[in-house]
Amino acid sequence: MIMGMSFGRGVLFHDRNVLACAEVRDGVIHLWAEKITIRTIGKLWYRIFFSFPWYYQLFHLMLAGYVVATFVNPAWEIVSPLWVAVYIGGFHFVFPRMMKKFHGAEHKVFSYHGKKSLTALNEIARADIVNDGCSTNLVVWFFTGFVLSAIFFPLEYSIACGVIGLLTGMFGDRVLRKYCGFIYRLSGFFQKYFTTKEPDRIHLETAIRSYILFEHIREVDRKQAA
Predict the structure, then answer these.
(1) Are the CB atoms for 129 and 192 separated by under 8 Å?
(2) What angle do CA 1, 179, 160 make, to 5 degrees?
């Protein structure tokens, strides 16, 4: 199964064995691919965290500092630090602008059913920006559980219900799509208007190059295995 992920400088595609990434640095697209290891996962998350604009990083540092401070001395608590967990759960809705464009490019590559190539860039640009398998689905499931329970329960229990909703969406996806179509239509709405933006050429080319590299590495592995 091929999965994609976007960050502030690029797009990556991966399966259980290999990860391929294309990222933009100083206006130039750089490519790299590796077998998935602990080192690769660390390299990935390093890029994700440090691709955010400085004001996002400052805000996140302040949030982390506040959580630590309230743990050290509960008297310093102004609002429950558990709201930080709600913020993390809803981070899809506040992606930086550039990340939303790379996210949109990733979705369009998935939506285009022809051969992914730079010559098909214009056709890929016209593909649907909504992706049925987007993680926004899980975010919507989290907030479905959270919002419905927040009416009746304290914050910590509402978050727990949100996590249960997320896990339900993760493991019950096939069944839920039959009976809870509204949730997935809501996710599609959020994808189209909140978690993605129409990509420019640089974002599309980055996503396409990442996918081509992933397919190439996977094909090399298949030949070697044969």
Answers:
(1) yes
(2) 75
For residue 201 the two structure tokens come to 């050429």
pTM more than 0.85: yes
Structure tokens at 95: 């992606």
CB 103 within 8 A of CB 195: yes
**Residue 107's CB: how many other CB atoms inside 10 A?**
28
| Interval 164-208: pLDDT, tens | 999 999 999 989 999 999 999 999 999 999 999 999 999 999 999
**Gap between the terminal Cα atoms of the chain:** 20
- Give the Cα separation of 221 and 177 in Å (integer): 34
- Residue 31 CB burial class (10 angstroms; 0-12, 13-18, ≥19): middle
Q: How far is 210 from 14, CA to CA, in rounded Å? A: 10
Name, in order, each residue with C-beta under 8 angstroms of 155's C-beta and a sequence gap of 6 or more.
Answer: 80, 82, 83
Backbone angles phi, psi at 198, to 5 degrees: -60, 125
- Sheet of 28-35: strand order equals 3-7, 10-14, 18-25, 28-35
